[in-house]
Amino acid sequence: MISLDIKQGILALTETWSDRFDEGLNPFIERFNASIAFDIALLEEDLNGSIAHARMLAKCGVITDQEATDLERGLEQIRKQFECGEFQPTVSDEDIHFAVEKRLIDLLGPVAKKLHTGRSRNDQVATDIRLWLRSQIDLLDIDLERFQKALLNQAQSHLYTLIPGYTHLQRAQPLSLAHHLLAYIEMIQRDRNRLHDVRARVNISPLGAAALAGTSVTIDRRETAKILDFSSIYLNSLDAVSDRDFAVEFAAAASLILVHLSRLSEEVIFWASEEFAFVCLTDRCATGSSLMPQKKNPDVPELVRGKCGRVFGHLQGLLTMIKGLPLAYNKDFQEDKEALFDTVRTTRDCVEAMSILFEEGLEFCSDRLARAVESDFSNATDVADYLVAKQVPFRDAYQMVGRVVKHCLQEGILLRELTLKQWQNFYPGIEEDIYEKLAPNQVVASRNTEGGTGFGRVQEQLESWSIRFGSQK
Ligand code: ARG
């Protein structure tokens, strides 16, 4: 369908499609087909991509410098109009690319119709989504560093605070609390490194692949890539418009971030229970019950744990959406956007919520933690190690300490409550210094292997992370 714009004396883009269409879309199908409700989020990237394309067209002599300047001015005007609410695309615009092009024609007239030369929405959308994701990855990286710093701050205050270490959620060996928190800093660092790797594959320009086969217009793809700060270009036009691997990779990286946040959330949730009481939630991040006045609920970590579901779901959704698609562009790809937008928003929100939780939402209860590590058998391995130092083979020492623990359990006492005589009944070589070995502080301090929880080793790690973050402490 076409219409004649009398004022301009030319055909205006008042209808989206070419002259081969006679009838308008069924109104439901128009809405079903449209992505403008969500891809409006790509406005900035669409404008920047178009400005780069216009400049390149001028440089290649496809349009004049004056035309490129006019196009750029019009595109900047759309940016401003959007900011002040004068550009509000509707469903009849279908998507952000058409919405911008139509507005540009309204603003500039005939020259605007030259913008789409040598380009298709297929390479345009692929470019926009990459530009958008690239900047979101950079913001997420900043979010993650803030979270690491919040963890580091807590860790720095708790080098000498001990916490039971668990395997199978059974008391295993005591740890420096800082060591426990530093483990999460390591995990988050891997997440950041992974994002960095994903970014490298996001940062490749598909622009100029056109619909699927390249274009006969003499454009310079490397020029637009340079202007948009892409590190390279896709070398196969079909691959350029068909590749959504980067979206899957990002969703996978985000899923692992959520896994890490969720594991920590789970720990905070049970640490905050009355049974553990290792942390107190401050009023800043805890909520009450509508019925039970005594309650303080850990809603923040629970929500973070719960939000894993949607991020994992988006990963699955993207994989499934792509798996049967023939080359090249298929409309199915329009589904990548909401999945990515929600993945980014959820992940960034969860990282921020956990940062706030560790900055001001919880306090570790050092007394309670100290009592916890003093009231168990998590020093049993150290008795075995003590015997090893006395030349008892480890397996024999291990069996012997098993008997000691069994005896203590029968008597309802702890290892440190055995008299020296009782110790010597188990092994005559045991001396008075056994009691030092049993003290939780000593148990932790002695684990001095690289990467271990010994205070010296943990101190090294605290220092190395704070140098890395350029913090003062
Ligand atoms: N809105 C579309 C998307 O998000 C833009 C590309 C449309 N291309 C096409 N040939 N229909 O994927």
SSE layout:
Layout: E1 3-5, E2 10-12, H1 27-33, H2 36-39, H3 43-59, H4 65-83, H5 96-108, H6 121-157, E3 162-167, E4 170-176, H7 177-202, E5 204-205, H8 221-227, E6 232-233, H9 237-242, H10 245-271, E7 279-281, H11 299-323, H12 336-361, E8 362-364, H13 366-374, H14 380-389, H15 394-411, H16 420-426, H17 434-438, H18 440-445, H19 455-468
Parallel strand pairs: 5-6
Antiparallel strand pairs: 1-2, 3-4, 7-8
The chain binds arginine.
Can you characterise this structure?
The chain has helices at 27-33, 36-39, 43-59, 65-83, 96-108, 121-157, 177-202, 221-227, 237-242, 245-271, 299-323, 336-361, 366-374, 380-389, 394-411, 420-426, 434-438, 440-445, 455-468, and strands at 3-5, 10-12, 162-167, 170-176, 204-205, 232-233, 279-281, 362-364. With 473 residues, it is mainly alpha-helical. β1 and β2 (10-12) form a beta hairpin. The longest helix is centred in the N-terminal third of the chain and has 37 residues, at 121-157. The protein starts with a strand and ends in a 5-residue tail after the last helix. The model is unreliable at 1-12 (pLDDT under 50). The site of arginine has 11 residues, from α6.
Which molecules are bound in this entry? Answer: arginine
User: What is the strand arrangement across the widest sheet?
Assistant: 1-2
What is the count of DSSP helices, taking H or I runs of 4+ residues? 19
Chain oligomer state? single chain
Strand percentage, roughly?
5-15%
CATH classification class of the largest domain: Mainly Alpha
Q: Give the averaged pLDDT, no decimals.
A: 94
Tell me the total number of β-strands: 8
**What general form does the structure show?**
elongated
Largest pleated sheet: 2 strands, antiparallel
Helicity range: 55-70%
Written as H for each helix and E for each strand, in order along the chain, the element string is EEHHHHHHEEHEHEHHEHHEHHHHHHH
- Helix/sheet category: mainly alpha
Give the termini distance in whole angstroms.
69 Å
